[in-house]
Amino acid sequence: MKTQFLLIFILSVQYFNAKKRMLGEYKNEFGEKLILNSDHTFEYYWNIDLASSWNIGRWKIEGNKYIYLKLNEIKDTLKSENKIEMVLSSDKISNEITNNEYALNVISGGGQSRNLPPKKLFYKDNKLFTFPKIGKIQNKKIRSLMNPRVNSKPWFEK
Predict the structure, then answer these.
(1) Longest dimension (CA), the chain
(2) What's this model's pTM, rounded to 2 decimal places?
(3) Which of 28, 35, 48, 72 could be joined to 57 by an S-S link, Cβ 3.0–4.6 Å?
(4) pLDDT tens readout for residues 17-33
(5) How far is CA 53 from each of CA 6, 74, 89, 108, 110, rounded to the nearest angstrom?
(6) Sequence-separated (6 or more) residues with CB below 8 Å from residue 28
(7) Residue partners of 83: CB distance under 8 A and separation at least 6
(8) Is residue 7 within 8 Å of residue 15, measured between CB atoms?
């Protein structure tokens, strides 16, 4: 019985320490920022030149090294003539908006979900690595968007 209790205690301490180490603000060289909060919410921002994007949501840990992000899209209510439509909000508060407000949001250079965050990340040495479409961890530099002659780090660092 003591052995089982000790094993459970050690595993739970490792889990909470891993989670605590993962918390905080991460950035990469592609204009992305990811904030992992202690209440398992996250904020994601992407900004390059005049274009920008943001998202919020929840995150969870699996196996003390994999982080999964689940988006929580904020919607506004757009009422026009006889129709009611739910559209992506330009801010973090759900509101009722007009056609003019919606048009301004659509043509602006920024907004919610314009560049989506990764769904899965791998945590190692205070870095968060992404998984591109091929399913392997992205741990090698890739060509920069701004200067193709420069290779940049696609992973997030604290």
Answers:
(1) 69
(2) 0.82
(3) 72
(4) 566 789 999 999 999 99
(5) 46, 13, 12, 11, 5
(6) 152, 153, 154, 155, 156, 157
(7) none
(8) no
**Domain covering 2-72+114-157, topology:** Lipocalin (2.40.128)
Under 8 Å between Cβ of 56 and 69: no
Contact 33/44 with Cβ under 8 angstroms? Answer: yes
Bridge partner list, 27: 33, 157
- Ranges of each domain in the chain: 2-72+114-157, 74-112
Under a CB-based contact definition with an 8 Å cutoff, are residues 62 and 122 in contact? no
Handedness of CA 16, 124, 43, 74 (dihedral sign): negative
Backbone angles phi and psi of 40, in degrees to 5: 65, 25
Hey, which of 11-20, 64-73, 140-149 has the most confident mean pLDDT?
Answer: 64-73
Radius of gyration of the chain (CA): 20
